[in-house]
Amino acid sequence: MEFPKEKKIYCKKCKKHTKHKLKEFKSGKGRTLAQGNLRHDKNTNHGYGGKYKFVATVKKQNKTPTFVAECADCKAKVPYSLGKRMKKVKQE
């Protein structure tokens, strides 16, 4: 789905509607000592290396993309989401 590079939305810092630059949010590097990673390592790295059986769940194919909206006036950044599921995001 095509998405604009700029959109006029409400800025909480300026307390008015201003133009915001939109870019797709990319998550940072995952933590190696996070609880989920520790649990996965505990289950896979013990014994004779048997397979770690996990409960298979059917995942949805599309996700709702998150954008970072940056105000043109005060440079405040806020997360912004359309609330629609889409496979690909292209900016116009």
Name the shape in a single word. elongated
Question: Helix/strand/pairing class, anyone?
Answer: mainly beta
Q: How is the largest sheet built, in terms of strand order?
A: 2-3-4-5
Segments where pLDDT lies below 50 for 5+ residues?
Answer: none
**Termini distance?**
10 Å
CATH topology of the domain at 1-26 and 62-92: Nuclear Transport Factor 2, Chain: A
Range of strand content = 25-35%
Give the topology string: H per helix, E per strand.
EEEHEEE
| Overall strand count | 6
Look at the structure and give the CATH class of the domain at 1-26 and 62-92.
Alpha Beta
Major sheet characteristics: 4 strands, antiparallel
CATH architecture of the domain at 1-26 and 62-92: Roll
CA radius of gyration: 20 Å
General description of the model:
The protein is mostly beta strands and 92 residues long. It has a domain at 1-26 and 62-92: Nuclear Transport Factor 2, Chain: A (Roll). It has one helix spanning 35-44; strands spanning 2-3, 6-11, 16-24, 66-71, 77-81, 90-91. A four-stranded antiparallel sheet has the order 2-3-4-5, with no helix packed on it. Strands 1-6 form a two-stranded parallel sheet. A hairpin with a 4-residue loop joins strand 2 and strand 3.
Protein traits:
single chain, 92 residues, mainly beta, Nuclear Transport Factor 2, Chain: A, four-stranded antiparallel sheet, two-stranded parallel ribbon
Compact summary:
The chain is mainly beta and 92 residues long. It has one helix and six strands.
